[in-house]
């Protein structure tokens, strides 16, 4: 038995075609799942439904998967040790990376990061349990989603589950902000032990998925920001001291990104250098594209994706006896390029998420999620207004499914539009017909 293709709970033996590869089965189960379809209605940066141009969680996930699969193919040809497959965690299968990339954002609730923040605050404040998007991924993949022949989860291969697991920790460990809920961590940890993965390390496939997610964020979200007019491609905007100060402060405040050694560089100077270089490239391309903004945007995005993706490589991680997927230049980690990517990510964050109009929408989103929570949190009342199939499933699993977690699962599975619809039914003076299908 190939340990990478092990499934934790394959009950539906004989219900699949023997002609299909195990990862092909995983791919089919994922893209045909309701949770995957609902990504089309969940915010990436701008609210889902804001406009046909802007990315949703679905289009973002598709773009991450395309980048990741292509990079995995290149690395497979570049690094001889990958073909030997001497360790299940030191393998880069393009199909596995693609599937993990498609699944990496399933756990995000409606209204983007604000939805995650509000649900986490409510659960911690009232019940002392967290809500976290990466952990929710595993709730969906291993418990909430259903498929034919299985009562619980999609039952994906071990390789795919561990490729999604970019934070290989139990969330109940002291001080952990990201990880896996204890209800799913036991089985993930069991797989990790079977694979003999060092504590705290992720598979190469998980590392590549995570890095390609950052590549997409730092290129595609900026393209959306330029299209929306939030990022203005002129010197007045890029040389504004307020913008530079905001970027510097975001970098200083980000405690989760100390590995690139910000303490060793003059942060304001590097921010100014990266912004100046980015604008200079834009101006040259803009002239070459006959001063057509849409062509220039697409070309800028394509070039930066190519710059980042072309520098992805694998180096030794002697501190853990493992390997690391990162940007590589002449056999060494390219720290300067990692910092550049972080600055572009912060540019997207500061100009888009911190925009006062986006903040207004996020305040509205917070109000809706809080009031939905208040409506559902008392079981005697909540069970009257939550769809019957959800209640039936809760009754079936209530021995391992607390009511607060159940309510969080229900709310987090909503699209932006569905959350607004349910909120309107409960609190607005008028909504659609009661015969609309949920």
Task: Describe this protein's structure.
The protein is mainly α. It has three domains: 193 residues, Hypothetical protein af1432, CATH 1.10.3210; 126 residues, no CATH class; 65 residues, no CATH class. Helix content is 59%, strand content 4%. It is built from 20 helices and three strands. A three-stranded antiparallel β-sheet has the order 1-2-3. Strand 2 and strand 3 form a beta hairpin. Helix 1 packs parallel to helix 5, helix 3 runs antiparallel to helix 5 and helix 8 crosses helix 10. The longest helix is centred in the middle third of the chain and has 24 residues. The radius of gyration is 22 Å and the shape is globular. The two termini are 42 Å apart.
Mean pLDDT, to the nearest integer, reads 91
The level of helicity is 55-70%
* End-to-end CA span: 42 Å
Q: For the record, what is the CATH homologous superfamily label of the largest domain?
A: Hypothetical protein af1432
Taken in chain order, the helices and strands follow as HHHHHHHHHHHHHHEEEHHHHHH
Count up the domains. Answer: 3
Shape designation: globular
What percent strand? under 5%
Largest sheet: 3 strands, antiparallel
CATH class category label of the largest domain: Mainly Alpha
Number of continuous helical runs: 20
Runs with pLDDT <50, length 5+? Answer: 12-16
